[in-house]
Amino acid sequence: MAQHLKHQMQLCASCSVKTKLSGLPLCPGCAGLERLIGEIVEAKANKVMAFEKYEAIIAEAQSEHQNPWEIHRTTNAQTKLSTARKTVERAYVRLSNYVDHGIVPEDLKAKALKATA
């Protein structure tokens, strides 16, 4: 029985701690860190796209006659950009809380429980 458990233990690919996980050999700490960093990367990419769309709408609005739809499009683009910026900020706060204070976000706790079940 002990031999069977010994084969299931793997070294974390990131920090070399022994861990019992299937699939990618990451300990829960490194897996959480990787996920939170991935959230930042995704949020920043979404922010860049929102900013590019906003810039395009502003440039288009400046080159054409003003009409009510341009104001509406500009407002929508501003709202999306603001939301994207807040998402990046939240992602950084989540990572900071995890790294600096050991606070594991609830959604990561739920995923860790599913992975070990």
Explain what you see.
This protein is mostly helical and 117 residues long. The chain has one domain. The chain is 75% helix and 3% strand. The chain is built from four helices and two strands; from the N terminus they run H-E-E-H-H-H. The protein has helices spanning 2-8, 28-63, 68-101, 106-116; strands at residues 10-11, 18-19. A two-stranded antiparallel ribbon has the order 1-2. Helix 2 (28-63) runs antiparallel to helix 3. The longest helix is centred in the middle third of the chain and has 36 residues, at 28-63. It is elongated. The model has no long low-confidence stretch (mean pLDDT 83).
Question: Keywords, please?
Answer:
2 strands, 3% strand, 4 helices, 117 residues, two-stranded antiparallel ribbon, mainly alpha
Gist?
The chain has helices spanning 2-8, 28-63, 68-101, 106-116; strands at residues 10-11, 18-19. With 117 residues, the chain is mainly α. The chain has a two-stranded antiparallel ribbon with strand order 1-2.
